[in-house]
Amino acid sequence: MNVSPTVRGHNNVRRRCDVDCCLELRVLTTLHLLRHLHRTSFQSFAAVNAGILADTGGTCVPEFDCSRERWDAVGPGCVFDSAGTNPQWGACIASFKQSLIASTCIASMLATLCMGIFARMPMALAPAMGVNAYFTYTIVGYMGTGLISYQAALAAAFVEGCIFILISASGLRSLMVELIPKSLMYATAAGIGSFLAFIGLQGSQGLGVIGYDGATLVALAGCPPEEQGSSYMMREVDSYWLNFCFSAWQFQDTNDTLTSYTDQYALNYFTSVLNLTSPFNPSLVCSQYIFGSSSPVPLVQYGLPAPSAAYGCMGHSMQSLTMWLGIFGGAIMVLLMARGVPAAILWGILFTTFISWIPYPNKTTYFGDQSTLPGGADRYSYFLKGATVPNVGKSGGVLNFNALSHGNTWLALISFLYLDFMDATSTMYTLAGLVAEKVPGFRNEKGEWPRQIMTMCCDGFAIIIGSTLGTSPLTVFAESTVGVKEGGRTGVVALVVAFGFGISMFLSPIFSSIPPYATGPAIIFVGALMMEHAAHVEWNDINKAVPAFLTILLMPLTYSIAYGIIGGMCATLLLWLCNMIIDFVLATVYKNMTMRQVYLDSFSHLYRAFGKEQVLVDELPGYVSPHTLSGQKAAVEFEITAAVKPENMMKSEEADLK
């Protein structure tokens, strides 16, 4: 295929991009705003992100925001109450979620404006899906049961953004890309996709297709509310004393009725530890010594603990009408995207949402007393407001920098750095490569592009803005590829997306009323799309395949992105170390390689990262540069594509490049 001559140098690339700026503005404003930008579904994404972060409990304080009766009954355990059981706590969480929607829109708008104005790249920024789940369920924990508080996690994210700007401005960030195995980067993206799909299949933030099971951990769910059962986590000692004391009270046991066979543990405790002698009443002893204020038994909990957010089905699985409505909406997304219909994800969400907004007698409604999810009446009254002035009072400016003196905060900071570094950097390089396909010469031989440092600095600025407003770290949105594939080459794409975020922040009553069974299929679908990264893993190389597989597998099974990454990194380091030792032994025994050659082969990735690849070419026999292999692979793929593409499509692409 004949194409126009390669544009030489970044100055020529800049002039070429600027020539089409007016054309892009006109096309993007009319076409992309209606088609491709809606395809990213950033309006519904704000509700999804806010729903995930709201599970942290945020700035709600149990002692003051729980109802007095529930606080007196279960203490801090009131945070696990449903909105129906504890309306005051539910109202606080709802208010926090509404604040997060505004924070998400404002932070995304400012960050994307920075990318469009200063970096002039077609990239949109928003809170990273996957990172927000890690922020919520691993670092802060469900309702604040994790390592650090919500305020401390925001402070860690703020410092992370500052570090990102420093390493980006110094060029260190580009250098670090070469040190991370590419297969592990691709596996991380695919693992996050599987983790998102696992979240979308559950009930709290998704369809409710799967639930817990006491024997198999997970099982089919999707049952009506009256068939749902919560799990209660307790220690063995708690369950023993609950059963024993309840039985003693129910049957009015005496010490004579206790047997050494069934009640040996209690008998030994009463006689040996408490030094009780006959006669005594076991139920009174339980009240005084087991659950009383003078209990010598440590931490025996009175009554059942707080129920879990996840549920299992006692029967009638797969009979929930809201679940089937969500599944049908997900099927619409898949079918429309398969047919090439623009805004496929958005149309699926809108279909499910509009059906759920129909009030009684609709059994799938999200509003009113007929809703199967608690709080339907409050949601409907807030929805009727239609529009509101953005308010970030519940989430903005609550960073706790004093927490930086604790080790867990720095652990969270390092985790955020690693996750965001891989996520954002890999997405940036991918998008720059797509632009280079449209603009020859856009990237040089090292893969660098114009204003690369400013592009990466905007990413750090986005994290700082997001943490200040109360949301998890922002990153370059992978869905930016949609605009680039359709011809976007400059920051005009980012400016139009920022305009959409600006509108969304005033419509939070509408977007916060999107039900989880409408956004759940979207989360699953995004997870499915992210699995395409697994195709880039070199599965024929066992040294790369095993760490990649562990990374993908451990993320959903441990419900932690960090544990998946740690598992993959540990496997990579272990295999690398074992192979290096074996190579040294073989070189010593068989003299097939010199020690210098074994050393160069083992640390070849470091030589490439620091620009010393010529040493490998000169001293390592049979060495072939990965860049050469990538070029050969790209050439083969191009020849295959040219052979199968219709002639009119090839001519169209040729005209675009010219």
Automatic annotation (TrEMBL):
One GO term describing the cellular component: plasma membrane
Keyword Transmembrane helix listed: yes
GO biological process: adenine transport; guanine transport
Top-level division of the source organism's lineage: Eukaryota
Pfam families registered for this protein in UniProt: Xan_ur_permease (PF00860)
Record flagged with keyword Transmembrane helix: yes
Primary location group: membrane
Mode of membrane association: Multi-pass membrane protein
Locations listed in the record: Endomembrane system
Keywords, alphabetical: Membrane, Transmembrane, Transmembrane helix, Transport
GO molecular function, a single term: purine nucleobase transmembrane transporter activity
Transmembrane segments: 100-119, 152-172, 184-201, 321-338, 344-360, 452-478, 490-511, 547-566, 572-590
Family note: Belongs to the nucleobase:cation symporter-2 (NCS2) (TC 2.A.40) family. Azg-like subfamily.
Name listed for the protein in its UniProt record: Xanthine/uracil/vitamin C permease
